[in-house]
Amino acid sequence: MANTGQPNSAGSQYFITVEPFTSGNYTYAAFGNVIEGFDVVDAINVVPTTGPNGNPANKPLIDVEIDSIRIVTPQLYEIVPPEHELTADAGGYIVFAVYSYDSNLTYQWYVNDELQTETSNVFFYSFPLGGTYQIKSLVSNGEYEYPTIWTVEVAGAGAGVAVTPGSVRLHQNYPNPFNPSTTFSFSLNQEISADARIEVFNSRGQIVKTLSSEGFTSTSTQDAFSYSVIWDGTDNEGAAVTSGVYLYRMKSGTNSSELMKCVLMK
Q: Which of 63, 107, 241, 246 has the highest CB neighbour count under 10 A?
């Protein structure tokens, strides 16, 4: 796609090239390669023109027109995070998401080319060790696939949070999606400590809300203690957070539950 040389000036003039076009490198936005129907490109390429000295130069003597066009790859209207090169700390989380208006798509997620179990359009991942990670989303409409790739540089040797299996059972929030509020609940096999809290993270892994044990309501049975707390969709400063995917977990001392995701829709 051509532009005037200034940022955000790309227009509707497109180039399909048949030989190296080095003057466009790092200047024009490139969308991809022709993978089918190159005979059409060859036919356009041999249409007679006014030549380099014509007025205007190189204008086809026969207009080349598009009779119809069909977009065959899945169409995404938003990718989260928008940056494709990210940083994180070992033990930290990042939420990845791809959004489309098409409800008939399938989703696959890969970490360093290893297929993950997540099959929705949202994927969150905890980076266990320092190093370079490649996260890939593969969206398919059954005929064509659309890949999105993020590279994440992770600092640190390893996660510092120990999880005690079976000690915390975090439940799915209700309602989900929600607006304007939702209830988090969890169960323990013992009474919670004074420092227990629910932490809510945004898609970049930053804590936006901490719900302390002072706000928990509780019930108990012979085998377990159950707790719940309402989140009203505000951050720690009392400001309303934006629509999107959020993560939450119960944390007490060095022990924590697994992360779960919730969706705020306004």
A: 246
